[in-house]
Amino acid sequence: MNFSARLTALVGISFALGHLQTAQALTKVQVSKLAQSVTVMIQNAQNPQDSGSGIIIKRDGQTYTVLTAHHVVQRSSAFKVMTPDKKFYPMMQGSVQALPGVDLALVKFNSSEAYAISKMGDSNLSPSGSASFVAGFPGTTVVRSEPEYYFTSGEIAANGSRPNKDGYALVYSNPTLPGMSGGPVLNEKGELIGIHGRAERVERLQNSQLRDDIAVLKTEFNYAIPVNTFLNLAPQVTKALALRTPSPSMTSALKADDFFLQANAKYKAGNLSGAVSDYSQAILLNPRYASAYVSRGLVRQELGDEQGMVSDFNSAIQSNARSALAYSVRGVTRYKKGDPKGAIADLEQAINLDSRYAHAYLGRGFVRFEMGDKQGAISDLKQAAELYQSQGDVKAYQGVLKNLQQINGR
């Protein structure tokens, strides 16, 4: 039975909700309400399934300016904007303004209604480990037949001073769905700190049997262009958008977050040893970099370095006791080492930290099944299936359903 390989596969490179707070921090509900009041959907007038998101940043009389990702509006010249009250307005003809060298664009629409304007934050003040919130309108699917506002919480995994291609430098753990590109990334004060535009997903799936891997490896990071990048470039597009001068970067030298970004790029390119080296450099510069420990542990897992993997997961938990992923992966490791009770304890802690963490429910379900708790296993797998479906992970959802059918048949 290939149970250990299957369990090992349940995790992805993502990170639990951060808990850093400030005196001005809002609750998640308050941030969501703020985000909902300024987030719009941008829909292709000829093809409604071609949609993205954006955020209102300026009002001039009856003309509103929306900031979005350039790739959202470059496929057509005819779009309409759905405002928070679900009214549709045609995008002003010829209003698309691309910002130079980055995946950002401005669009405009006219309305006599009064809509809220986003408050600009300072993306330099959102270090790794701080809270992040993403809002947007996922595209329609079989499950979602109508556009609905979607809001997720997570934490910043990296905030690099050396951006990747197209300006992407902000990395975070928030789950996102297709259609949310162009939507806002907010800090714990409800201020705009980035524009979401990219999701990095690499997965190899096998869903044929209960004993096979559900996902050998799944890496999930989301990327945004920092708002400070926009603020620096906006005056080049129009002086009317000289909203404020962003704070300067504190250093020109590579910092821990930059090595983290480099490691992610090397991992994506298949350079696993190079990724480990850069994650190690990030940890050397920031010994409490929980995201880097977890990421390095997962890469070491692929390289067959089980001792290094376990050490990294333990270090991640010591650095950030709220890392649901670290507990989940350590739980899998405990099961492999013959400690099912310890595995259950860690997986339950992961669920306590993040009640929508589908991988943890799935892992606990498999452990319960191996321990003879068939009903507990079925309950956990059903919960995992519901979460995968709500999060738009169709392949994982279908895989869990197949496993449920096999368990029910036994």
What's the quick description here?
The protein is of the alpha+beta class. It has helices spanning 3-8, 28-38, 70-73, 227-237, 256-268, 272-285, 290-303, 306-319, 324-336, 340-353, 358-370, 374-390, 394-408; strands at residues 12-13, 39-44, 51-60, 63-68, 79-82, 88-90, 97-98, 105-110, 131-136, 150-159, 170-172, 184-186, 192-205, 215-226.
Structure description:
A seven-stranded antiparallel beta sheet has the order 6-5-2-3-4-8-7. A hairpin with a 2-residue loop joins strand 3 and strand 4. 39% of the residues lie in helices and 21% in strands. The chain starts with a helix and ends with a helix. It has a domain of 76 residues: Beta Barrel (Thrombin, subunit H), CATH 2.40.10.10.
List key phrases describing it.
disordered N terminus, 410 residues, 39% helix, alpha+beta, seven-stranded antiparallel β-sheet, Thrombin, subunit H
As a whole number of angstroms, the C-alpha radius of gyration is 22 Å
**Number of alpha- plus pi-helical segments:** 13
Largest sheet: 7 strands, antiparallel
> CATH topology of the domain at 35-110, which one?
Thrombin, subunit H
- State the fourth-level CATH superfamily of the domain at 35-110: Trypsin-like serine proteases
Determine the fraction of residues in helical runs and give it as a percent range: 25-40%
Q: In total, how many beta strands? A: 14
Spatial order of the strands forming the largest sheet:
6-5-2-3-4-8-7
Helix-strand sequence: HEHEEEHEEEEEEEEEEHHHHHHHHHH
- CATH architecture type of the domain at 35-110: Beta Barrel
End-to-end gap: 16 Å
Low-pLDDT residue spans: 1-23, 202-219
